[in-house]
């Protein structure tokens, strides 16, 4: 990647997340709600998360960060750009 290009962001689609069955999305939904609460950021349709948070979520879901990113993309909660954000993992 170009040294001038900004790091790709991990942006959770909160509307899509709220439509998913709880068995799948429950842990991610609770994690996102905790971050929203810590930031006092309740009004967004999306939530930008830290790269480090994807590592934590991967432990929670018992997958690698790359596998989990693919799963979240298939659910529609991350867009394809997120792939570039985990390339460095
Ligand atoms: P903190 O990590 O000590 O960060 C303090 C403040 O620094 C944050 O207040 C925010 O204004 C700013 N800050 C830190 N890192 C970033 C960043 O990457 N981008 C931006 N734009 N600002 C940043 P804020 O937002 O009120 O968050 C309060 C506390 O909530 C944070 O304290 C942290 O403990 C927790 N937190 C907030 N968002 C996240 C998150 O996405 N992941 C995790 N793991 N913790 C978070
Ligand atoms: P962006 O990062 O591409 O975000 C585009 C829009 O997505 C934001 O427009 C906001 O409506 C939404 N968005 C993204 N992440 C979050 C989130 O975690 N919470 C909420 N509630 N909304 C989110 P907005 O706010 O008008 O910001 C426009 C641009 O300004 C952003 O584009 C970004 O480039 C910059 N910006 C805004 N806030 C921050 C910040 O805290 N840190 C940095 N570095 N840039 C910011
Ligand atoms: P961003 O605000 O555009 O920040 C991009 C990257 O710059 C962050 O990636 C992080 O590596 C670095 N950075 C920005 N501000 C700080 C800071 O105060 N302290 C430190 N140590 N590093 C900082 P990262 O961590 O992957 O975060 C991605 C995006 O998640 C951020 O984009 C921001 O939109 C959101 N975010 C992360 N943490 C917080 C937070 O504590 N509060 C808020 N409001 N947003 C956060």
Shape-level CATH architecture of the domain at 24-85 = Orthogonal Bundle
Number of helices: 5
End-to-end separation in angstroms reads 15 Å
Average pLDDT taken over every residue: 94
Q: Which series of helices and strands comes N to C?
A: EHHEHHH
Rg, alpha carbons: 13 Å
Written overview of the protein:
There is one protein chain. The protein has a two-stranded antiparallel ribbon with strand order 1-2. It is 56% helix and 9% strand. It is globular. The longest helix is centred in the middle third of the chain and has 18 residues, at 22-39. The mean pLDDT is 94. The chain is built from five helices and two strands; from the N terminus they run βααβααα. It has a domain at 24-85: Arc Repressor Mutant, subunit A (Orthogonal Bundle). The protein has 89 residues and is mainly α. α3 packs across α4 (65-75). The site of one ligand C2E has 8 residues, from β2.
């Amino acid at each position: 990647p170009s040294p001038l290009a900004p790091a790709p962001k991990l942006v959770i689609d909160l509307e899509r997340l709220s439509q998913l069955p709880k068995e799948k999305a429950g842990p991610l939904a609770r994690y996102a709600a905790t971050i929203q609460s810590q930031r006092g950021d309740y009004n967004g349709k999306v939530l930008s998360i830290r790269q480090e948070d994807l590592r934590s979520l991967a432990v929670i879901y018992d997958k690698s960060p790359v596998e989990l990113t693919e799963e979240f993309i298939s659910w529609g909660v991350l867009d394809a750009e997120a792939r570039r954000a985990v390339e460095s993992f």
